[in-house]
Amino acid sequence: MPSQEAKILGDFLLAPAPLRDFITLRDFTDIFPRAHRSNPAVQEIYRELQRIRDKDVELVRQDIIDEVKRSKQLRREYAREKRQIDDATVAGLDPVALQMEEEMSGQGRKKPHTLQTVHSDIDEACQSLEARIAEIEQENRIALTEVQDVVGALSELRHGRFAPSSSGEGIGEEVMATLKRLEAVCDKPGG
């Protein structure tokens, strides 16, 4: 079942979109002067417009799918931040006391799952994990690129060839600065 957001966007953007819904071939032919209405090119132009319109509709359909995915991720991030804020507001309680407080107040208790809710929650969790994995892989690629850049800068030292100092520093200071840069890249959290 599509989400409410997908349904609203689809109803608003896709339902009135096909060319034949707002101009028929006969109406389109009537736009042309009488002498050209029987020309086969008029029908070809109409078909080409239909093809272009259908292509645009398909692009909008894909954009709707992408937007729904983005909104789900935003909702997950919002929920995660809200949980962190809620957890921070009860920082004085240990986890057992916090659980007892939630049980006594009735907050934090969720309704039992049904087959439909379990399936949708599992799908959402899978999408969340896939999104997080993609983020981590991107962070790893960035970190690897940074490390490769620094190691490349140090390769001259390994081979005993020294490039002229671009910053005007001595070789020793430049090597130390590059090593500190490598250390900073390796120590950077999350990347």
Description:
With 191 residues, the chain is an all-alpha fold. The chain folds into 2 domains: 1-109, no CATH class; 113-191, no CATH class. It has 7 helices and no strands. The chain starts with a helix and ends with a helix. The mean pLDDT is 79. Keywords: Coiled coil. It comes from Alternaria tenuissima. InterPro entries: Nkp2/Cnl2 (IPR018565). One of its GO terms (cellular component) is Mis6-Sim4 complex. This is Cnl2/NKP2 family protein.
* Proportion of helical residues: over 70%
Q: Uncertain segments of ≥5 residues (pLDDT<50)? A: none
Using the CA coordinates, give the radius of gyration: 30 Å
User: Strand share of the residues?
Assistant: under 5%
Supply the number of helical segments.
7
**Order of helices and strands, N to C?**
HHHHHHH
Mean pLDDT: 79
The main sheet comes to: none
Helix/strand/pairing category: mainly alpha
Q: What's the count of strands?
A: 0
Q: N- to C-terminal separation?
A: 38 Å
Number of domains: 2
- The geometry reads as flat
Organism: Alternaria tenuissima
Protein name: Cnl2/NKP2 family protein
InterPro entries: Nkp2/Cnl2
Pfam family, one: Cnl2_NKP2
